[in-house]
C-alpha cells in the first residue's frame, strides 16, 4: 500500500515536514479554498501540487471534490455544477492527478457529537452519541418531525441529557454537529441548517439513489476518458440522521451503484471506520467483493454498540479486524501486479487518530492530530509488513 496522509494545506498544524517524518510519501488533499461548485482551475491545482512536491512528497489522492447540494437534490442550476465537476476532473487529470474521493451525503459530511471524548488511557477521541444527537435534534435544532424520530427511551434520555448541559456545552454540541468538521466544505448556523434540511423534505432514499446514479452516468465517462478513478466514500455514520436519506452505507448500496454504472472508474473509498459502524456490514466479504474497485483505503477503527453509538478506537483495536482487511488489500495488490496494472499499489491513509502526548495541548483539526495518526500509521505499517512477509510478498 502507498502510505499517504491527509493534509489540509499550509495552515494545517501538521506540516509537510512532519508528514515526511511520519514516513508517509503521498499527500491527500483538496483545493479547500475553492467554493463548492466552482471549477478547479489548472493554475490552482498546479500551485498546490508545487508546494507538495517542493517538500519531496507527491499529491496522491484528491479528497474531496465536494458535490454541490443542488446536484444531490437536482434543483436550481444543477446542470451547471455537474459541468463544473467534469471540468475539474479533466483539469486534475491534466496535472497527473487520477484518484478522486468524494461522498454523496446530504447536507453534512461526517458527523460527531463530541470531538474530545476521553478514553481510558487519557487520550481523546471522536464520539457519536445517539442521545446527545437526539438532544440536539429535539431541543436545540427543534426540527419539525424530530419528536417522532426516536424511541421512547431515547426521548427520555435526551431530555435528561439536555437538562444537564450548560449553555456553553449546548453551544459546543451545536457547533460540533453543524459548523463543519475538517474536510467538510460546508458549515451552517442553526437557521441555515434547517433551511437546507428542508430542501430534502420531498427526497426519499429511492430518489437520492437515482440522483446519484444520474450524476455518475454523467461524470464516470469523463473520468474514464481521462484515466481518473473516482472513489465514493461511505456515509458517516452509515445510517439515516435528521430525517435525511442515506444511500451509500451498505454492500447492497454499492452493488446497486455499480450495477447501474459498471465502469471500474466508478470505485470505492473503502473506509473501514464508516462501514464498520453497522454490525451487519461484513467488512471481510465487502473488501473481497469490491477489491477490484477499491482505489483508496481509509484505515480507521471504531468501537460501536447496538444503539448506534460509537467512538473511534486505536487503529488496531475496536470492532474492525484490521488484519483481515490489510491481508485482502495485499492480495488484491498482488493480483494487480500479476496482471500488469499500471500502478498496483493502493493508497491508504491512517484515518483519524486520537489526541495523544503533545497533541493534547495543541490546537488540532479534530480527528487529524499529528502524533495520534503517527501512532496509527506506525501500527498499520508494522501489521502490513508482517502480513506481507508471511504471505511471501
Ligand atoms: C472524515 C473524512 C470525510 C471524507 C469525505 C469524503 O474524516 O473521511 O470528510 O473526506 O466524506 O468525501
Low-confidence stretches: none
Major β-sheet profile: 8 strands, parallel, barrel
Quote the beta fraction: 15-25%
Q: Please give the count of helices.
A: 14
Molecular shape: globular
Which ligands, by name, code or SMILES, are bound?
Answer: D-mannose
Kindly report the average pLDDT value: 97
H-E order: EHEHEHHEEEHHHHHEHEHHEEEHEH
Distance between the termini: 12 Å
Structural class: alpha/beta
The largest beta-sheet arranges its strands as 1-2-3-4-7-8-9-12
In which range does the helix fraction lie?
40-55%
Instruction: Give the beta-strand count.
Output: 12
What's the gyration radius in Å? 20 Å
How is this structure best described in words?
It is a single chain. The chain has 393 residues and is of the alpha/beta class. It has 14 helices and 12 strands. The strands form 2 sheets. The protein has an 8-stranded parallel β-barrel with strand order 1-2-3-4-7-8-9-12. It has a 4-stranded antiparallel sheet with strand order 5-6-11-10. A hairpin with a 5-residue loop joins strand 5 (114-118) and strand 6. Helix 4 (78-94) packs parallel to helix 9 (205-225), helix 5 (130-141) packs across helix 7 and helix 13 packs across helix 14. The protein is globular and about 60 Å long. The chain starts with a strand and ends with a helix. 43% of the residues are buried. The model has no long low-confidence stretch (mean pLDDT 97). The structure holds D-mannose. D-mannose binds at residues 63-64, 101-103, 109-110, 183-184, 233, 298, 367.
